[in-house]
Design goal:
CATH topology of the largest domain in chain A: ABC transporter involved in vitamin B12 uptake, BtuC
CATH architecture of the largest domain in chain A: Orthogonal Bundle
Shape of chain B: globular
Shape of chain A: globular
Strand order of the largest sheet of chain B: 6-7-8-3-9-10
CATH class of the largest domain in chain A: Mainly Alpha
Strand order of the largest sheet of chain A: 1-2
Distance between the termini of chain A: 63 Å
Order of helices and strands of chain B: EEEHEEHEHHHEHEHEEH
Order of helices and strands of chain A: HHHHEEHHHHHHHHH
Oligomer: heterodimer
Radius of gyration of chain A: 21 Å
Largest interface: A-B, 17 and 27 residues
Radius of gyration of chain B: 18 Å
Distance between the termini of chain B: 50 Å
Structural class of chain A: mainly alpha
Structural class of chain B: alpha/beta
CATH architecture of chain B: 3-Layer(aba) Sandwich
CATH topology of chain B: Rossmann fold
Number of strands of chain A: 2
Number of strands of chain B: 10
Number of helices of chain B: 8
CATH class of chain B: Alpha Beta
Largest sheet of chain B: 6 strands, mixed
Number of domains of chain A: 2
Strand content of chain B: 25-35%
């Protein structure tokens, strides 16, 4: 039993790496551009399918295929922001949501048109990496692929963090995230910065998509589920924080594998439950801070505050 | 030689007209103080000069080129930098990073991090602190330093002494006086403190209700004339009753 638990914890933590990569792009877009891209999951599947075609049709090695696909996806992200997202953002808060839902639908059906509805996987193209494992003392088995994905997540998020802290582009991104107009007044072209952030975000989504295709089967319609996981990891880890996405991803992965120990159906459900729990806790904590204490805060959340009820009923005599 | 020419610009905020045909000229190396009551249009004028508010009509020429429709970041790269109202520092970044951003994206020139720190010595111990934790005077110094890092030919400073302690105002103006005396950079300063504007500026410009009511050298006007212009009082002959 203990071994099983330890195994689940390790698998869950490693799975968190995958969630962190897909969540990092979503978090970056929200943190810098204040834009929620609901087609993020579909873009990650697009990246995976392009990689698959490069490998299976053109016969490129997987790494070379990724090297070709990543700049392509980054350019797609840049252009999408330039021609679609920027215009959508001018139309208020609802328009970006509608536009990216529409974009997601168009991507899914476009991919269906090109690649068909067959499930596909990169598993067959990466040799023994897909199934081989390390056997640790105590009967612990660690899959090489999950370790590789987790390691990549740590490196990618670490590199992104360093880029934001140390480079001119990173400073421009952070300045724009903090106050776009003040950044403009310092000579930063906020629009270009937003486009660069979109390019990085789509690139991150595509990396995640490739990993998903390596460890599982994908179809053109796999995107929305990935978007939900990404959202959950972002919310658990705290919006706009890169380190938070890694922690959020790990917590989500852990909840899923530990839930899977209870029963197979519990796996996804327990991830959602933990997400909801964290969300409720965050809302309560906000109210606690706003009202000066847990008791008053919880009352406010539950609508027990007499003043608020009076306000709602319009009776304040 | 004039570095900045503003010809009859009109700026609107929705239905409200904030600038009603403002024209002015700024010469290289001179200091122009803009005074006026709240709502006179001072900040809108500064934002129009900086490119943060594109005028609805009129023309702005910088070194002879038309920049009326140019956006803010292009103007910074061309040589117009502004320290905006409210300082607008990047609160979650360090003072050093705040300064570096303007340095990296502005013009090249002799205003470097070292020179800004020499001009504003109060920033030296704060250089690696988060800008969000600074006091009002420190924030103002950092904001002016940030604008200087862009090496502008025209430096726009909005509301220099607003919200600062008298000691902090003194410190900021001591640094500004040194920059003024090099006569390299033109400065446009919005200043609520009338006596300080009169003492510091080569020329003053008094605004009320979106128009320039008075412009010229401080020595040309009596205090009463300036006060009347400040409050938008027209010196008309009293009507016969």
């Amino acid at each position: 039993m203990f071994e099983q638990l330890l195994q689940a914890i390790l698998q869950g933590a490693l799975l968190g790496g995958y969630y962190a990569i897909i969540a990092a792009g979503l978090s970056l877009m929200f943190g810098v551009v204040r834009f929620i891209n609901l087609a993020h999951g579909d873009l990650s599947i697009l990246g995976a399918l392009i990689t698959l075609s490069l490998v299976q049709i053109l016969g490129l090695p997987v790494l070379a295929a990724i090297a070709v696909m990543l700049p392509l996806m980054a350019v797609i992200g840049w252009l999408m922001h330039m021609f679609l997202f920027e215009r959508a953002m001018k139309g208020g808060f609802l328009l970006p949501i509608l536009v990216t839902i529409g974009l997601g639908a168009a991507l899914q059906n476009g991919m269906f048109g090109i690649w068909g509805s067959d499930t596909r996987s990169l598993g067959a193209s990466i040799g023994s990496l897909a199934w081989s494992s390390w056997y640790l003392p105590g009967g612990i088995i660690l899959g090489k692929l999950p370790v590789l994905i987790f390691g990549t997540a740590v490196i990618v998020i670490g590199a992104l963090h360093l880029m934001l802290k140390r480079t001119g582009l990173g400073r421009a991104i952070r300045a724009t995230a903090s106050d776009p107009e003040a950044a403009e007044l310092c000579g930063v072209d906020a629009r270009q910065v937003h486009r660069a952030a979109a390019a990085i975000a789509v690139g991150l989504a595509a990396i995640a998509g490739v990993f998903l295709a390596m460890r599982a089967q994908i179809t053109p319609y796999s995107g929305p589920a990935q978007l939900i996981f990404a959202f959950e990891a972002v919310v658990i880890g705290g919006i706009g924080s890169l380190g938070g996405t890694l922690i959020g991803g790990i917590i989500l992965g852990l909840s899923q594998t530990l839930g899977g120990l209870i029963s197979a159906q519990m796996s996804l459900l327990s991830g959602h439950l933990v997400f909801l729990g964290v969300l409720i806790w965050r809302i309560c904590r906000e109210e606690k801070l706003a009202h000066g204490g847990w008791r008053a805060g919880l009352k406010a959340v539950l609508g027990l505050s007499s003043k608020r009820r009076k306000l709602a009923s319009g009776d304040l005599s | 030689m004039s570095v900045l020419n503003v010809n009859n610009i009109i700026c609107r905020h929705g239905l409200m007209t904030a600038l009603r045909g403002v024209s002015l000229e700024i010469h290289a190396g001179e200091v122009l103080c803009v005074i006026g009551a709240n709502g006179a249009g001072k900040t809108t004028l500064m934002r129009a000069l900086a490119g943060a508010h594109i005028p609805d009509a009129g023309q702005i020429l910088f070194q002879g080129r038309d920049i009326t429709r140019q956006n803010a970041h292009t103007r910074v790269r061309g040589g117009i930098a502004m320290s905006p109202e409210g300082r607008r520092l990047f609160a979650d970044m360090t003072v050093r990073e705040n300064l570096m951003i303007a340095g990296e994206n502005g013009q090249n020139g002799d205003w470097t991090l070292d020179r800004v720190l020499t001009a504003f010595p109060q920033l030296v111990p704060l250089i690696d602190k988060q800008a969000g934790g600074l006091s009002g005077g420190q924030r103002q110094a950092a904001a002016i330093g940030r604008a200087l890092m862009a090496n502008p030919d025209v430096l726009l400073l909005d509301e220099v002494s607003l919200g600062l302690s008298p000691a902090a105002v003194e410190g900021v103006y001591a640094s500004l006086a040194e920059i003024r005396d090099t006569r390299v950079m033109a400065m446009v300063i919005v200043e609520q403190d009338l006596s300080r504007s009169l003492a510091f500026a080569d020329r003053i410009l008094c605004m009320a209700e979106g128009e320039i009511k008075l412009a010229g050298s401080p020595a040309d006007f009596t205090k009463d004339q300036i006060t009347d212009a400040y409050f938008g009082i027209q010196n008309e002959a009293p009507a016969d009753v």
